Amino acid sequence: MLGLRFSQLIPPSEGSTYDKLSKIFMELLQYTAADANEALSWLTELDRQHNLTTSEYGMGDFINDLMENGFLKKNEQQNLEITSKTEQTIRQQSLEEIFGKMKKAGLGGHRTTKTGQGDEVSSDIRPWQFGDTTEQINMTDSLRNAQIRNGIEDFSMNENDLEVQEREHKTFNATVLMIDISHSMILYGEDRITPAKKVAMALAELIRTRYPKDTLDIVVFGDDAWSIEVKDLPYLQVGPFHTNTSAGITLAMDLLRKRKTPNKQIFMITDGKPSCLKIGNKYYKNSFGLDQKIITDVFNLAGQCRRLNIPITTFMIAKDPYLQSFVRDFTQVNNGRAFYSSLNGLGEFMFEDYIKNRKKTVR
Prior knowledge:
Blueprint: H1 17-31, H2 36-50, H3 59-68, E1 72-74, E2 80-82, H4 84-99, E3 110-127, H5 139-150, E4 163-171, E5 174-180, H6 193-210, E6 215-221, E7 225-228, H7 245-257, E8 264-270, E9 276-279, E10 282-285, H8 292-307, E11 312-316, H9 321-334, E12 337-340, H10 346-356
Helix pairs in contact: 1-2, 1-4, 4-6, 6-10, 7-8, 8-9
């Protein structure tokens, strides 16, 4: 017996200086609301402290390469700004980061218990019916039926011989992602908006690449609520806002009414209590505790969503017991789901819930 053999450890290549700097730069962009100049300033400071560049390849070379590769451009004021290529790279990097933390799971269309048009063959076989396409016909069984009926020498086939192989029907979902951009998302020295943006970008990239028939609308809510495009996510910032959850849900319901699918859902990322309500042209605000007037309106909308079969999944990223109690009551009214997540676990919770499409009520 030879026993153990040892050899020299050759560490894996870390890539070029450009690759290392590019990965850090893309990450910094998410913390600077896609401000390229601020991100480069931070990267320069990191280089000063940790010697990220070399005498052969400096920060000036890195900036030139970013521009040549189409990641940076100069605007009319000659300031650097990111391009659409950079926006897509950030989404892809967010997707890879979140999926790298998840357990392996099959990805594809959303399966149902029904048969219909799909790309996976079912074990169910039935006679051909008018309206079935030729792609659905099981030719092997159909030929066998014709041979049994007529024999080989006098072979013929008619519609009574045809059999159809059922396929698992795959449906598509319409999702609205609500992101809280009230001031509390950056209070107490904790940045909660950047992880929320990162998850939103990764979810958008997941849907674009893996579930292209699904739809994703993004709603941000502070004193008011409005829709934003996926390309706007890197630039999203928190404002001096209260939390008008009612406005966000109302807009989400309006968007889902336009989607021609029965499978609709709302994902809501928030860290605080509803503290604002718009009545006519005036804002009713209360930052001290849970205001019954505001809460009642939010619960009424949650009930409306339940009657419309629109579950709301709340991702609560605050640990206050009285706020978690509100989320439990809100979830019960809507018959939806709730996750009390840390910032690090937010992406895993959301992606597993989206992919598995679980029907679990949190009580």
